[in-house]
Design brief:
The complex is a heterodimer. By secondary structure, chain A is mostly helical. Chain A is built from 16 helices and four strands. Chain A has two domains: 256 residues, no CATH class; 116 residues, 3-Layer(aba) Sandwich (abc type-2 transporter like fold). In chain A, helix 3 links the parallel strand 1 and strand 2. By secondary structure, chain B is an alpha/beta fold. Chain B has a domain of 127 residues: Rossmann fold. In chain B, 39% of the residues lie in helices and 25% in strands. Chain B is globular. Classes of the chains: A mainly alpha, B alpha/beta.
């Protein structure tokens, strides 16, 4: 004889596995979205780096600036003649930045007059940023060299011209730079259990009532908490399966694709996967319990679906709020579901050390809240207004 | 043995059941007869512990469901008003789930299904998913599910609803078989012929009250007419004392 809890759990799992919606959700939500997003992000990032790494400047009217051309050639910069319709092409985005040299440039330059250049670019295109900044840097370097030589010719020390010299020191390690971009992996990590637990939670409560199987089910000599816990465990298991698949998808994508392209940016290996699961699986316990509670309360399948999707929206707002409000990490945030997990996951990706307390507090809070929600479900299942529907 | 005393239940402004009392004996088929909205389903829900009565007492084989709901449910097989199945499970799996919930082992469940299936002509349906079953087919599975643990007391809420003539016949046979094995069968119906064909005892409810109870003969006598249907219409039309 199987324990009743196992009977309820196994029935819900079997039922869910035969549900085509489950299969579709697992395929779309976990196997496709994660890796596909990652690959898109990774190729976007590496694209930016590639654009900036080969030094190339497009010049219109290079013949009017032989000194500049000479400087660029010495600096090993590839010079490309800009097409005549460069303005239109910059606008449509097929050209990033064009240096435009007026006809009188060389004469004015030789005469030590102010010699103007134009740098044509489109600020609204983020992908043209690296090329524009590169052209700016090269022109500034040409400017510095000219000034340097002129000051030298007058017997003045060039350092007079530069009272302050700014040198950039970026403290972000390549890995940390990756984590800024891969804000997305924690985000998917948080959303995956919401997607994964949803179908089972709704189907085993609001669905159960809608198809008229709740009433006879509750007439069995089994305490209501056994049904609540069994259904919760099934939803949690489904959420955990989707989380694991999503994260494994990221791992596979990182291995197969990103490691070749972005070895330093994407450090998502087996230890990170394990840390992610350790953080998200307890969260999944809570989200599944909450979904179960909401769906038990929902009057119909549709209503439950609506409420549960509000929950997903709220949960996905939390990381965005953190990102855009620029809120600083504080200890109390660890105790807020989703917020705490987001914090810990970002630390994992940044390669920061994790104290035990950082991992245990969010997990503990999630499990306690899950327990409360499941107890509430058991209570609702004993409420005749819930079982037989309300007006 | 099911005994009910002065049962009452109010839903908001509606007094669904007001002082229903009757007894359903073992080895006997008791019919709860009444028009729609008479309080039959509410009464059966209170007996099966799904709804708590506002007043009154229930006894199932001497057990008070208010105090020991699980023990009371152990002794009941219920075909409730809602009789949904799990569409992605086969008929056999649907029945076996309830068997397992009642703590039966695999062998006992298989034996029970083998015993019930021929009575309800379930054989060819057993290993098909219940998705796409006709109303009658679903009903048969739901009845089999209610009987899988061989309960001493069987409560059936409108069991013949949606059944065709042939299925109704086989259900009647099954109910007679239950009576022969000494079970207490309590079923509700709003169809006079149904009750007349099966019942040893009839309890007529209307407006939440028992308006008449007794053998079919006694009921006919009380209504002073030969035809049972005519008797039903007369008695059910009689308002309760407090209406």
């Amino acid at each position: 004889m199987k324990p009743r809890l196992a009977v309820v759990f196994l029935k819900e799992i079997r039922d869910a596995l035969r549900d085509r919606r489950t299969a579709l959700m697992i395929l779309v939500a976990s196997v496709l979205t994660g890796p596909v997003t990652l690959i898109l992000v990774a190729s976007f990032v590496s694209g930016l780096e590639e654009r900036a790494s080969t030094l190339r400047v497009r010049i219109a009217g290079a013949e009017h600036a032989p000194a500049l051309v000479n400087f660029l050639e010495r600096a090993d910069v590839e010079i490309e003649k800009a097409p005549a319709d460069y303005l239109a092409r910059v606008k449509e985005g097929s050209l990033d930045a064009v240096v435009v040299v007026p006809e009188d440039f060389h004469e004015r330059w030789l005469a030590h007059e102010e010699a103007r250049l134009e740098l044509v670019h489109d600020d609204s295109r983020t992908e043209s940023g690296p090329a524009t900044r590169q052209a700016e840097r090269l022109l500034a370097a040409f400017n510095r060299e000219t000034a340097y030589l002129r000051l030298m010719a007058r017997g003045v020390s060039p350092s007079l011209n530069e009272s302050t010299k700014v040198e950039r020191v970026n403290t972000a390690t390549p890995r940390q730079r990756g984590a800024v971009l891969l804000f997305l992996i924690p985000m998917f990590g948080i959303l995956a259990p919401l997607l994964g637990g949803m179908t089972v939670a709704i189907d085993s409560t609001a669905g159960e009532r809608e198809r008229g199987s709740l009433e006879p089910l509750l007439a069995n000599p089994v305490p209501a908490w056994v049904f609540a816990v069994g259904k919760w465990l099934a939803a949690w298991a489904s959420a955990t399966a989707v989380v694991t698949l999503t994260m494994a998808g990221f791992l596979a994508a990182a291995r197969l694709y990103a490691e070749r392209k972005l070895p330093s940016l994407l450090n998502f290996g087996v230890p990170e996967l394990a840390a992610f699961l350790a953080v998200i699986v307890p969260l999944a316990a809570f989200t599944s319990a909450l979904q179960l509670l909401i769906s038990t309360y929902g009057r119909s399948y549709r209503e439950a679906q609506t409420y549960v999707s509000y929950l997903a929206t709220v949960a996905s707002f939390v990381p965005l709020v953190v990102l855009f409000s620029g809120a600083r990490e504080q200890a109390w945030q660890l105790a807020v579901p989703v917020l705490g997990q987001m914090m810990v996951l970002q630390r994992v990706l940044r390669g920061d050390g994790l104290a035990w307390i950082d991992a245990l507090v969010p997990a503990g809070v999630a499990l306690v809240l899950a327990g409360i929600a499941v107890a509430a479900v058991a209570r609702l299942l004993r409420d005749e207004r819930i079982v037989f529907g309300r007006a | 043995m099911i005994r009910v005393e002065s049962l009452a239940k109010r839903f908001g402004a509606v007094q669904a059941v007001r002082g229903v009392s009757f007894a359903a004996a073992d080895g006997c088929v008791t019919g709860l007869l009444g028009p729609n909205g008479a309080g039959k389903t509410t009464t059966l829900r209170m007996i099966s512990t799904l709804v708590a009565p506002d007043a009154g007492r229930i006894e199932i084989d001497g057990i008070d469901p208010a105090r020991e709901p699980l023990a009371a449910r152990e002794r009941l097989g219920l075909l409730s008003d809602a009789r949904g199945l799990y569409a992605r499970l086969t008929a056999r799996e649907n029945i076996a789930y309830y068997g397992e919930l009642r703590g039966l082992g695999r062998d006992r469940i298989d034996a029970a299904i083998d015993a019930i299936a021929p009575q309800l002509e379930l054989g060819p349906l057993l290993d098909r998913r219940t998705d796409g079953f006709s109303q009658g087919e679903r009903m048969k599975v739901a009845i089999a599910r209610a009987l899988v643990h061989d309960p001493r007391n069987v409560v059936l809420d409108e069991p013949t609803n949606g059944l065709d003539v042939r299925s109704t016949r086989s259900l009647r046979e099954a109910i007679r078989l239950l009576r022969e094995t000494g079970k207490c069968v309590l079923f509700s119906s709003h169809v006079m012929q149904e009750v007349a064909a099966l019942c040893d005892e009839i309890v007529i409810v209307a407006g939440g009250c028992v308006v008449a109870a007794g053998t079919p003969g006694a009921i006919r006598e009380r209504a002073a007419c030969e035809d049972l249907e005519e008797a039903f219409v007369r008695l059910a039309g009689e308002p309760g004392d407090d209406r």
